[in-house]
Amino acid sequence: MNYMWEALLRGYDLGIAEEDIRFVPSKTANPYREVFFDDMNAGLTAPGPVDVNAYYRYGAVFGPLLDEEMDGSPGMRDTLFDILAHYLTRLDLRQGLCRAEYYAKFLREDIWNGVFGKQNARRLPFFAGPQARLVLAALLRMYKVGASMKLFASLLRELYPNSIAYFDTEYGRELLLYIGQKETPELRGRLELLRDLFIPADYDVKLFWDMHFGLIGTDETMEIGQFMMF
Fold it and tell me: CA angle 226-227-229, nearest 5°?
């Protein structure tokens, strides 16, 4: 991790709010890096200050702010430095966005603002970082190609590698989902959000968490005490 914008993206992946990442001018200078961490290999791991080499790219911007005349107002200097650093970092990130990423950003804001239902706005925080990006990318694909159970099953497998989706091929309106993980409130919230976003309302969805239902003729699903009746 070398740049301030990488610290913001790392914070996004970890579910750290942008305002909880504070950029501060480093007291030591490193000509090869813009940001500093105690463990350079680990990088950002928790909310807190991020030391920045103010002269790495933006010396013309930060130079006057770090002039010795500002030594008498360290609190104001640090606050202005953080505001400017966040502004410049957002500019960096916007320059690297493609059209699909802009659409995904708008979709996320719509979900957060309750366009897809207030209950889904409450469920959205259960997804963070790479998982959230997978969900939004799949939602964009669905808008292009229409509702698709294969698309949903592919997304489910990406999110939960042990999951299996079973479709009722005779009537086409029943969906059995084996997740392969123990049920938790957060996991249930994620699955309910996915159900509302990707599965048509007239489908009958049944969830199976860490125990598969028995399938006659499939020995792996018929071990005593390791399957549930359905």
Answer: 150
